[in-house]
Amino acid sequence: MQRRTAGAALAAVVAGSLLGCSAPFPPVHAAPDGRAPTVFAHRGASRQAPENTRAAVRRAHELHITWIENDVQRTRDGALVVIHDPTLARTTDVEQVFPGRGPWRVGDFTLAEIRRLDAGSWFGSRFKGERVPTLQQYLTLLDRDHQGLLLELKQPELYPGIERQTLDVLDRAGWLDPAHVRDRLVVQSFDAAALRTTHRLRPAVRIGFLGKPPVSRLKEYASFTDMINPDHRGLTRDYVVHVHRLKGPHGAPLRLNAWTVDDGPTAARLVALGADGIITDRPDVMRARHW
Length: 291
Ligand code: G3P
Ligand code: CA
Prior knowledge:
Number of helices: 12
Shape: globular
CATH architecture: Alpha-Beta Barrel
Largest sheet: 8 strands, parallel, barrel
Strand content: 5-15%
Oligomer: single chain
Radius of gyration: 19 Å
Bound molecules: SN-glycerol-3-phosphate, calcium ion
CATH superfamily: Phosphatidylinositol (PI) phosphodiesterase
Structural class: alpha/beta
């Protein structure tokens, strides 16, 4: 995050919202020293709408949040869908619709079958009828509202070749053009091998590693990742400094985004430690915060 004055940061926010467009990493509210975190709506605005659904993306947009995090997996017949768990049980009515098909793994169901599932009622009756979105549908919605995507390859070891396939879907949807790649897309994973593969296939795409590699290995990670995105617990100022000292594959200093941070005081502490971004289920709370 570049340093700038609070006035300049505020002007950028106002200009961004007037233009209705997303800046690469726009601040929400600037601190007195001009530094403010990027806020990522984790699985969308997932405390106010069912996670990883289009309703959660729309809610984040209503909150003026321009970065959305999601999770991508693959169906039995090869479609990419947006869902967090490796099974459909927690966030859909699969157990009622397909009894006897346990353990209801995402990869054991076709897209046509998954399209029949209700992915909203578990969260609240007013979300009845929400569906598990395909990645393609999800990208269309993000484009409509000029939002950016922190796309997580979820358990890529379950889905051989998902790196290339995800890039293909992004490409077909227009998400690998220079503007999207520069301003609106980051691919992240806990799986460093999948990220190396993604970087090798499309070196222009920004990459985020989910986790906290030891300081002694950060340089190695900086060869393929632009961001280190750790669990916020146990994060220290010293670690953040080490991350920021290195440059990623695109020549910019590594950034650090902490997850999952759902209360203002914790977020403020992390920003004071130097975190560049906050990945949160509560974008409403982060939005309201003055850093
Ligand atoms: O973006 C960080 C976070 O999504 C990693 O954990 O389990 O919520 O995908 P999880
Ligand atoms: Ca995730």
